[in-house]
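Tutorial handout. Part one gives the primary structure; part two gives the three-dimensional structure as tokens.
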Amino acid sequence: MSIISKSFNNKINNLKGEFEVNKSVVHQGIKGGLNENGILLLIKDVIPQKFKLTKGVTENSKGDQSNESDILIYNDEILPPYIKEDLTFVPIEAVKYIFEVKSTLNSKELKTTIGKFERFGSIGGTSPTVLFSFSSDIKGSELVRYKKNESTFYTKPNLIALCVSDKCYYFKHKSEHYLKDQMSNTDFIKLLDKSDGSTLQDAFDAFRESISNNELLSKMSRVEFASFIKNFINMDNNINNLDKKELTVNGIKYSEIKFTVHRWYGIESTTDNDVILSLLSGISNTLSQKSFGSYLLSGKELDYKVFAICYEDMWGNLSAQDFDEKGLKYDTERVSFKFESSNDYNKMIFTVNKDKSSQD
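Part two.
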């Protein structure tokens, strides 16, 4: 274990010890403030110094405000905050992270936090939202409980990360892909051919047969014959150079068709500070130019699982949605899809190959 990793393990152990001591504090507000300050100081040590941390309110240029947040990470080089006595108002563009900190997570606290982060998003907030708790009132899956309370769990959850000390750390990840990088023009045309039962090659073969039809050719005028030959040459050219062409599908360039993959990743552990170290790594890696997380974890390989998957096309259609509280048991990247198109709509439908035997 590296010196950096040892140091942060000691800091996390001290944080946990302070939490146990703080349980003796009767006043809930003071107790919560002590716990919030403890995690704030820990986060401060893993992010670049250009970022500031505060408790406060986020505000947009129209004057719309969020609820008060336990911790805000912001960059005052983007926009400076306004500080009124002990309360900080941070311009929404300057916010980089927003946190809620709980002593013990329960259903009421979870719903309240979802509401706060929903408000943050409604005024234009796009920064990662994190719910951290020192403990929980349940032994079961925290992600299952969150999923039950979040209508947009798969695609636009109000929480981007959920962490309970010595229990679990989950985070939402999305990646955007262009269809052209997954499938060539030729393969895409073949896919469309399968859906409507005809093929481009069939059309070309029919054209070729026409050339051998003397009766048909004899009825053509000189101009019609020249046009026929020109079209035949163009079709031959297009088929042989299809991958170099710019395809257009229902008025949309094929090169611009894209889709998004939504996943919930996570780790569940009750030992070795893995959960909090993973949270700190995620925050630090997001805000740093290099991966400080590798120092925090000291090269340790953690068993991250995919707990939820959803594919979304560029028109907002969802498919291949799946969730397992124990982690999905198949490769979520092994997918096939079909493309539906008409004058009224376009739609991509993805299907994940769940046959584990074919993935070995």
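Part three, for discussion. The mean pLDDT is 87. The CA atoms of residues 40 and 300 lie 25 Å apart.
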